[in-house]
Amino acid sequence: MVDHNLLQRKKLFLFDLDGTLYLGDRLFPGVRELLSAIRARGGQYRFLTNNSSRSVEAYVQKLTRLGVAAESGDFLTSVDALVHYLREHDGQDKRYYVCGTESMKSQLRAAGLTVAERREDANALLMGFDTELTFQKLEDACILLGQGVPYVATNPDWVCPTAYGFVPDCGSVCEMLWRATSRRPIVIGKPEPLMPQLAMLEAGVSAQETLLVGDRIYTDIASGANAGIDTLLVLSGETKEEDLPTSDPQPTFVLPDVAALLNILES
Q1: d(CA 87, CA 82)
Q2: How would residue 39 be classed by pLDDT, with cut points 50, 70 and 90?
Q3: For residues 264 and 30, is the Cβ–Cβ distance under 8 A?
Q4: How far is residue 251's CA from residue 18's CA, in Å, rounded to a whole number?
Q5: Within its chain, how far is the Cα of 241 from the centroid?
Q6: Buried-state track 167-204, b at ≥16 Cβ within 10 A, e below 16
Q7: Per-residue pLDDT reduced to its tens digit, 87-123
Q8: I need a surface site. Which of 18, 66, 164, 197 has the fewest CB within 10 A?
Q9: Are the C-beta atoms of residues 129 and 158 closer than 8 Å to each other?
Q10: What are the residues whose beta carbons fall under 8 Å from the beta carbon of 222, sequence distance 6 or more?
Q11: pLDDT at res. 1
Q12: The pLDDT value given to residue 4
């Protein structure tokens, strides 16, 4: 039974994107109305995504193309969280070999981090969702991991949803590298709590006033649970209803899609 009153008291809504608000270039029904309803009642929302392959500007353009008014301050990506982590935990002498897109590299450089284009110049390895992945990058990563360099990944997602199904995401590539090198990365994005924690700090909202909405148990829902906030699983993406009995953690709420959340907020 979904507690309508509890949902209606939330002040900050943290939305996953792929599989939650849209799939490919298809915006799910009710998204525009839901975002407008949250703002109309004095609430806030942020878009949290583990997808490190594109910049915030690209996400703004995509949502605008789909008919959703958006600006850069509405987004928090796994690359944003990665930059925060590296500034807090890494020294100034790190030179990062990046298994990621040119967009990800540009974001890291813009944040003042040193990106090494050649393996020989690197002393740390960063992994992201790399839609420009080559075997040379995999080989370079294996050599660096064999040398024992620090190893950090943006996210552990096995797959990224598309309009035609799924493609391997960062977690699948990290699993392949583990099979080759017996090294696993430090993971920054969801399911770790850093992204929702940064969003709450920025919005000035408590954990009790926050709701994380996503379609994956092992990233979205786990991230919310790790951050101590309520979670809403929507069944419009990766997770199916038959997965729920054995899922850990369990979401606070389950709804078929975000249109159902809109109905609750307007009831």
Answers
A1: 9
A2: very high
A3: no
A4: 18
A5: 22
A6: ebbbbbbbeebeeeeebebebbbbbbbbbbbbbbeebe
A7: 998 767 899 999 999 999 999 999 999 999 999 999 9
A8: 164
A9: no
A10: 190, 191, 249
A11: 66
A12: 87
**Angstrom distance (rounded) from CA 35 to CA 168:** 30
Residue 161 has pLDDT above 90, yes or no: no
**DSSP letters for 215-243:** S-IIIIIHHHHHTT-EEEEETTSS--GGG
Contact 95, 86 (CB under 8 A): no
pLDDT confidence tier of residue 163, bands split at 50, 70 and 90: confident
Please enumerate in sequence order all residues whose Cβ is within 8 A of that of 153, keeping only pairs 6 or more positions apart, or say none. 126, 127, 128, 170, 171, 174, 185, 186, 187, 188
| Whether the predicted pLDDT of 44 surpasses 90 | yes
Q: Please, what's the largest Cα pairwise distance for the chain?
A: 60
Compute the distance between CA of residue 196 and CA of residue 190 in angstroms, rounded to an integer: 9
- What token pair was written down for 2? 């979904």
How many helices (H) and strands (E) the chain has is answered by 10, 15
For the chain, list the domains and their CATH numbers.
Answer: 4-50+190-266 (3.40.50.1000), 90-187 (3.40.50.1000)
The tokens of 100 are what? 């990621």
Burial of residue 134 (CB within 10 Å: 0-12, 13-18, 19+) is: exposed
Around 80, how many Cα atoms within 13 Å sit in the side-chain half-sphere?
23
**165-188 pLDDT per residue, tens:** 889 999 999 999 999 999 999 999
Q: Report how far residue 13's alpha carbon sits from residue 15's, in angstroms, rounded to the nearest whole number.
A: 6
Backbone angles phi, psi at 52, to 5 degrees: -95, 5
